Amino acid sequence: MPSAPSSAPLESYHTQHSPFGAFASFTLGLVDSPGGFGHALRGPAQQNLYIGFRPSTKSDWNLLPYFTPPKSNEVAFVGELAVPQAPKNYRSLRPGDYDRQLGWASDTWRAGDDRFTFSLLTPFSRVPDPAKLTAADARLHLAPLVSGFIEYDNRQGKTPAELIFGLGEPDRGLHPLSDDASPLAGFACGTEYAYATKPGRGIELRQGFDVFSPKFRDYRGLLVIGGETALVFTVPAGQKKRFPLVLAFYNAGQITTGLPASYAYTRHFSGLPDVLAHGLKNHARYAKIARDRDAELTRSRLNVDQQFLLAQSTHSYFGNTQLLWHRGKPLWVVNEGEYRMMNTFDLTVDHVFFELEWLPWAVRDTLDLFVRRYGYTDRIRTADRLAPGGLAFTHDMGVMNHFTPPGRSSYECDDVEGCFSHMTMEQLLNWILTAVTYAEKTGDRPWLVRKKKILLACAESLRRRDHPDPKKRDGILKHDSSRTGTHGWEITTYDSLDVSLGQARNNLYLAVKTLGAWVLLENAFARLGLKKESTSARATSDLLARSITQKFDPATGFFPAVFEKGNQSRIIPLIEGLVYPLYLGYRDAIDPAGRFAPLFDQFRQHLAQVFKRGICLDETSGGWKMSSTSRNTWFSKIAISQHVIRQLFPETLSPEALAADRVHADWQRRPGCGAFAMCDQILSDTGVVCGSRYYPRGVTAWLWLLEK
Amino acid sequence: MPSAPSSAPLESYHTQHSPFGAFASFTLGLVDSPGGFGHALRGPAQQNLYIGFRPSTKSDWNLLPYFTPPKSNEVAFVGELAVPQAPKNYRSLRPGDYDRQLGWASDTWRAGDDRFTFSLLTPFSRVPDPAKLTAADARLHLAPLVSGFIEYDNRQGKTPAELIFGLGEPDRGLHPLSDDASPLAGFACGTEYAYATKPGRGIELRQGFDVFSPKFRDYRGLLVIGGETALVFTVPAGQKKRFPLVLAFYNAGQITTGLPASYAYTRHFSGLPDVLAHGLKNHARYAKIARDRDAELTRSRLNVDQQFLLAQSTHSYFGNTQLLWHRGKPLWVVNEGEYRMMNTFDLTVDHVFFELEWLPWAVRDTLDLFVRRYGYTDRIRTADRLAPGGLAFTHDMGVMNHFTPPGRSSYECDDVEGCFSHMTMEQLLNWILTAVTYAEKTGDRPWLVRKKKILLACAESLRRRDHPDPKKRDGILKHDSSRTGTHGWEITTYDSLDVSLGQARNNLYLAVKTLGAWVLLENAFARLGLKKESTSARATSDLLARSITQKFDPATGFFPAVFEKGNQSRIIPLIEGLVYPLYLGYRDAIDPAGRFAPLFDQFRQHLAQVFKRGICLDETSGGWKMSSTSRNTWFSKIAISQHVIRQLFPETLSPEALAADRVHADWQRRPGCGAFAMCDQILSDTGVVCGSRYYPRGVTAWLWLLEK
C-alpha cells in the first residue's frame, strides 16, 4: 500500500501489532518515541526500540526513530568513578530517510536505498469457534505472537553489513533465552514477553548499558544487569539475508477479577519458549497469511487513504481483543481502548460486521453473556409514576480486567443528565440489532430459536419505552429508565459528542436506529414462524417511519437532531440505523422508492445539505463532523455513515465530502492521533484526538469492502 | 521515637512498609510525592495517597502530603462537553502541621492537635525455618500484608468528623472487594494488591474521578471506571474511633526465571481476600508484635539518630526480602535495592548479624545455594602463567527475578579494570566469614561438619591467591583470578567508591578482612577437630598480621589503602574485617593487647588521625567518609566501622566523629536520600544519594544494639 503522498506533512503514527486475543501489542511508529511490548495497557509501552542497519562495522548505526536517546544506566552502578557516555555511534533516521508501508497484516519499513527492510507481520484469519478448536488449530490461531523479519541486501557491498533489532527496558530487565532452556537467540522479560530469532552464524546477542558499543562483557559477551538488549545480525559482503523475528507475549494465571478467567492460549502454550519456537517453526505459514490479507486489501476498490484507515483500524482492533477461558469455556472480550471497558455494547454492535466475517462465534458468545449476566429488567419513569419497563442490557461488562457484578456496568451512574448516565434504550437496540444480524448473516437458526423469548421480551420492552399506553405510541422513545434515578436521563452512545446526540428521548439518531431494530425484528419473527409478531413489528416500523417523517422541517430541509426544545443541530448519523437492513440485504426496507420512500426522500434532502463546510464538513479541515454543533467527531461512526450514504444516498455526497478520506487518514497518520495508534474521537478542526485512544472500533471501515 | 529536633531542616523521606519475604513495599513519606503499593520495583510506586481527616463534613480535607495534586480523569470520557474540575476541597498538610514518628516496626503520624492519628505497622519477629513451619505459623509469619490504623479523637467535637484512606491509580484501576466475594470494605487492584477495613456503620467506599466530592455514583455509590478510590470513615461527635487497616500484596504463579520459583506465601494464602481477612482477624496480634519491636528499640542505648537509622534501615531491608518456593523447598533471596541483584554476596555478609538474630536459616540457605549453584573453581594469573586457583563464589545469583546460570553472576565481566570486574577473592572471603559466623553463632555443628570439605577448599584457595609458591606467601592477595580475563583485575565490594578501595590486589581493607577469615577458619577447624589445619590457619593469620604491620607508614602514622603505586588514600574500613571475631567474641583476636597488639596499635594510630575534617570527616558536613579521597560514602559500611571502632578503638573517636550520627540521620531523612527510602551510597558533602537506593544493607546498624 502506498504511503502518504509527498505533499502530506509529517507521517508519524503508532500502530499496534498484536496477536489474536492476547490483549497485547507491540507498538511502534511514532517518530522519536518509544513503544514496544505492552499487556493490557491504555496506550503505547515505553521501551526504546533499536531497529536498523549499518553498511559496515565502521559506520554509525542507522536506526528507525522509535526511541528516545538512550542513556547509559552505568552511572547508577559506578557513582562518580567514571562519566558514563551515552551511546553515540548511531543516527536516528528522519521520516524522509525511510519508507513505511502499512498493510492490512503487515507494517514494512525500507531504508538505505531499499537495501534495509524491516517488517512486522500480524496475520489474521477466520478463527473457528474456540470451544471446538483442535489442539493444532488452537496453536495456530491463538499463538500470542507477532511475526516479522529484518533484511539487508548486501549484494553490492564490499564489507559485512550489520542489522540490529533490540529493546531497552531498564525498569524490568531482560535475560537471554538460553537461561530458560530455549535453543533460540533472543531475550525475555520475566515470563511476560520475549523476542527471538533462529540461532546461527552471524547472529550475536548483546546486553548491557549500550548495545551499540558494549563496554562490559561477561563470559558470554553480555552484561545481564544492563537494561539494553539486542540481536545483531551480520550480512556478509555479496549476500542478501533475511532473518526471521518472533515477538511473543505470555500472561499466566488469573487475569480477570469478578469472573476469574485466564488466557485461552495458556491451555496450548507452556510459556514464552514454546510460543517463540512455534512462531519460528511456522514463520512461513504466518507470513503467507499476512501476504494474503495484504493482497486482499490492496486488490480492493478502496483508495489508498481508505486502505490505510482500515489497516490501521484492524491493527488496533486486534490489540484490544482478549480470548479468556472460564470454567472450561471460552470467554470473549473486546476491550475499549484507553478506557479498557470490557465488551462495551456500543462497540460490539459496531464490530459486528467485521466479526461476522472473521470470528462470528465472538458475536454470539457476547450476546449470550449479555443475556446470562448483563441483562436486567427496569421500569420506566413517566410524569407521574414508574410504569412497567422491560428487558434491557448494561453498557459494558466491566473495566480493566474486572467483570462488574451481574446486571451492572462499570460506567452507568444514577441521577445524571449527560455522560455517565444509563444507556438502557441504546443497549436494548444493540442487543436486537446484533442478535438478528448475527443469526441472519450466519444462518444460525438454532441459536435464534433459543433466543425467541429474549427477542419477544426485547420487542415488548421497546414498546413500553415509547409509551405505557399503547394508544399513545408513535414508535419513538419518550421515557427514561428507572435506572436513571429520580432526575437523570438516558443517554446514547454519542454521550460525549454533543447534547444533540447525547439525549436518548426524542432523539433522531436513536429513532432511526429503532426503525432498523423493528425491521430486523419483523424478519426474525417471520423466520421464527411468529407471524403475528412479525406483522406487528412491521406495523410498528411503518408507524415509526411516519412519526419520524413528521419531525422533518420542510422550511430548512433538515431534521432536528432532537425533537425537543427547538434543537437545530444537523447530524450525519441519522441514517446509521439503516446499516443493519442494508448489511442484511432487506431490499424492501432499503429501497429508496420502497415502503420508507417518504422518509428516505427526507433523508436525502437532509444529507444533500449537510456536506458543506461549516455544517457537517469542518470549516478548517473539510473532515466529516457527526454534528454541526460539535467539533468532536468519531471516525468509526463516520465510516458507517459513509458506507450507508455511498450505498443509499450517493447523490448527496459533495465533491468535498468524497475527498475527505484523505483528511480522515491524515488525522490518523499524524501525531495528533498517531501518538495513540487508532483514535476515534477527534477534533475536526485540528485533527487532534480528544478521546477514545488506542481504540478498536475503526473496523467499522470493514463495511467499505462490501461496497460494489 | 522522637522525631528530628526543631533545629533540623525539612524532614521528608520515604519509608518502605513491607511484609516479610514478599519483595513488596507500601512506600510513603516524601513530602508532596506519591508512593503506594509496589511489587519488585527499583523505587517508590507512583500512586497518589489520600490519608487525612476533616473535623466536620463542611470543612476541607486535611491530607498528609503524599500525593501530587489529583486531576480528574473525567475529561478522557466527556471530551469537550464539560470542563472537569480537579478536586478542590482539600489542603495538603505541611511538615510543620503534623508529627511523624518512625519506630522499628511502625510509622505514625499525628495532626490536628493530635486528634488525628495514622499508623502503619510492619511487625517482624524471629521467623522459624520455613521448611519446618506449621501451617498456622506460616500464615502468621508469611502473610503478605502491612497492618495499620486510622483514628480520630472527636470527644470534644460538636459535629461528626471524617477520616479518609484512599489511593489513586488511574493506570490500572481498582475494584471493590465485594466483587471478589469478600465481606470486607476496601478495594483491590487486579489480583495484586488491596486495602481494606472491617465493614460497619460509618464506613463508606468511594470510587470515581474525585473521591472528595464524587460527582457520579452508580447503584452502590461508586464509579468503577474512576481511578481514585477511598475508604471514608465517620467519627460521631463525642467519640474517639480507631479503624483497622490492612494493606495486602499477592503475586501468584512463576515469579523468577532461570530457577522458576513462586512466592512461599502462595502456598498458605489463596489470594488477596484471604490475606486481608487474615490481617484483620490477627490485627491485634500483629499490633502487639509491632509494639514490642518499637519498645525494644526505644529502650535501647541508641541515641535518637541511631534509632532512626536502624528503624529506616530495617524497613528497607524487609522491602527487599523474598521468600520463594522451588521444588518443594524454600528459596531465600534478598534483592539489592534499585539494582535488584539477587543475594549479592557483598550484602549477605553484611546482613549476617541481623539475619542471625531474626532468620538464621536464611544465612544457611544462602550459603548452601552459593555452594550448590554459584561456586566455581578458577585459576590465578601470575606474571608468566595461569597457576592453579581454587574454589570461589560469584558476586550474586542473578538480577530482577532472574537467576543466572550456575557459576555465573549477573554483574561480573571479563577484562575490566574497575567496576563490573570479578570479585573472586572478596566472595571467597565472604563465604568463609558468613559460614563460620553462622555456624559459631547458631551452634549448628552438623552443618559445619557437612561443610568441612568446602572450608578446607576455601582455605587452600585463599593460600593460592596469595602466591603459587608457598614460600613466597605473606598472607596478602597478590594475584587476580583467571576469570578477570587477560588484563582485568579483581575488585572489591567497594568497587564504585574509590580506586583506593576498589582494587583487590594488595588492598588494605581486603587484607584485614583476610585476617578475619583466617581467625575464623582457625576456630572452625578447631571445632571440627582439624588440629593441623587450625594450627596452620593460626600461623597464616600471624604471618598476615605481620605482613600488614609492615605496610604501616610510621612517617605519616597511616596505612596506605593500597600497597602499591604510592597510594596515599586514608580509609576507615581498614578495620572492617575485625567485626567477625568481635561479633563471635574471639577474645584473643580482638584483645588490643593480645596476639595482634602491634597491628592494633597501628590501627589505633591510623584511626586517631582520620576523624578530622578533610580526612575522613567530610569538610562540609562532618559526616564519615569511607575514604579520604572519595566523597562517595556508604552508610551500611559506616555502621560496621562505627561498631568496631566504638568497641575496639573508642579512644580514636573525635567529638566530631561521635556527633556524626546526626549528620548521617539527616542525610537519610531529607529528600536527597529520602526520595528513595534507605540509601547507601551518599555524597558526603551534600548528603545526596549517588547509588544504592531503596537499599536493604543499612541493617548493619543492628550491630549497635550489641554494644555495651
UniProtKB/TrEMBL annotation, chains A, B:
Name the InterPro entries on file: 6-hairpin_glycosidase_sf, 6hp_glycosidase-like_sf, Glyco_hydro_52
Gene3D superfamilies linked: 1.50.10.10
Which Pfam family, any one of them, does this sequence belong to? Answer: Glyco_hydro_52
Q: Which residues form a coiled coil?
A: none
According to the lineage, what is the superkingdom?
Bacteria
**MF annotations from Gene Ontology:** xylan 1,4-beta-xylosidase activity
**GO biological processes:** carbohydrate metabolic process
Instruction: Supply the name of the protein.
Output: Beta-xylosidase
Task: Please report the organism this UniProt entry assigns to the protein.
Answer: Nibricoccus aquaticus
